[in-house]
Amino acid sequence: MNSDGSNLDRWVADSILGSLRWSNSGQYLIYDVTPYEQEKEELYLVERNGEPQIVVTTDEAISSDWSPDDSQIVFGYWAWEDNPIFIVNRDGTGLHE
Asked: pTM here?
């Protein structure tokens, strides 16, 4: 979107938008969506300049947040019995508990 509100770009279609969280630097945005016809939330990342979205996870991610230096994202999994906490690099690699 341009600063005057023109040239809108839809990031989320046919889905329910959940929470949004800007990175500490304001450079990145993570958000979760639940696609219609599915019951699990997907976590996405997009750069402030509109660079292509990165799918961080498609497996019921909840309560996401940023590391202090914006290099990693922390989140939980809703459907897991013990509700573990996971960390993943900003580019979607290196997922670990």
From this structure: 0.72
